[in-house]
Amino acid sequence: MYLGLLAVKAVIVLLGLIVAFQGFRAARRERSQRMLLTAGGFTFLSVGSVLGGVCYDAFQLSRPLSGTVQSGVVGVGMVLIFLSVFLPGSTPQ
Q: How much is the pTM?
């Protein structure tokens, strides 16, 4: 079961980072700060989704501290996505 969980987490991180990379490419192409913030948010969400387990297993941090680190990183991602929604953008022409 442990290997299955690792495989699913790896797929989640991979898909999230692919979405973030495509968002970054779109941000460069369109020169969009909104899309750049969204791509950054997806990056933090993707990495944060597995960070608690990594901190606990690899760095031997306590469960509460690992959860706090994970929640902080995911929170930063959510704030970036939130800011991208409310950032003033260009008006449609």
A: 0.85
Q: Provide CB contacts within 8 A for 49, sequence distance 6+.
A: 9, 12, 13, 16, 70, 74
Q: What are phi and psi of 2, to 5 degrees?
A: -60, -40
pLDDT at 57 over 90: no
Q: Which amino acid is at 81?
A: I
Where exactly are the structural domains of the chain?
2-83
**What six digits make up the tokens of 45?**
């969400």
Tokens of 2: 């442990």
Note whether 80 and 27 are within 8 A (CB).
no
